[in-house]
């Protein structure tokens, strides 16, 4: 069967059908191995959707790139590219409760065997094959508030994964469960609609359910399914895995290539034990290429609202905030604004650096500069920046992902005021 053929409820495949005439979908029909070879093909097509239809080690096709451009993400959110940040803010500020919860239906279920999945090994020094496009759904053991978040998961054997958990919401839930000597029930969902996937990456307070943010993206029409073995509700996906994060169990996790294209270190991380796997008919396994544009955008885009809000609180005339692909959608930001007073740009720089502590370089431009056009941004730097327009902060806490950071985690941060001086703006007027 054609992997793009959709059945009722196939949200990801319906999205692919809706954009197939607008975006390039590359279909690789030759036999491809999950070990390195598949990733090499994905790297050759950084901005395209790629479907690997014939996997040596699995009967499932692999899909990648559904969120690797802002244009695809804007289509998933039904907004213009320049309005993505405002659309995310609107959804984060207005999560919508989900009332449509059903029994799990439309899936084939079986006992756990993770090796049936085409889990890719992306690079030679990887610690093992990694699930990279899976979101973990869990509940707070005390409040039952749901959390949905993407985590990398390294394959250990047929029933076990090592999971990297940073100290945020899922970590908090897991520690609560571990303190009372219990495993944390979870579900892993792979192959979701891009808007649902994006919602799982948003930075909302711990008492906000990311799936309710997704429901806003879906205009209140998101459906959830009740799992069979764990008390968890999940969104529609190609693959649903039920299991538990084991209390007081740790194993080596890593190395893994992170956003900057450099290897993260080996750590002792928790272990997931899988109990049940549910598949759609002819499921598509979504793989996110580490350090690829899909990885960068999914991790970086949800930080733009945080920066935007902080900057807007400082200078209300902010137009947009962009975390650039060249800066790994993590280390470099461009802020577009309509300057109202001299010094506004420097205040914006300080607000941006405070809002996203991993940020390293910030460029502030006038609203006649297109922040999505890096040639236009470079023009602003070339023609509007003088020595007193450069703000340098030494010894600031940086990003753990930045290989240039010092051993103590500090770095030098730089802000560039690439705006026109208000008193001499006529000197900088550009031809139409």
Automatic annotation (TrEMBL):
Pathway: Isoprenoid biosynthesis; isopentenyl diphosphate biosynthesis via mevalonate pathway. This is Anhydromevalonate phosphate decarboxylase. It comes from Methanothermobacter tenebrarum. Residues 24-92 form the 3-octaprenyl-4-hydroxybenzoate carboxy-lyase-like N-terminal domain. Transmembrane segments: none annotated. It comes from the Archaea. The keyword Lyase applies. It is an enzyme of class 4 (lyase). It catalyses: (2E)-3-methyl-5-phosphooxypent-2-enoate + H(+) = isopentenyl phosphate + CO2. Keywords: Decarboxylase, Flavoprotein, FMN, Isoprene biosynthesis, Lyase. Its cofactor is prenylated FMN. Residues 420-432 have a biased composition (Basic and acidic residues). Belongs to the UbiD family.
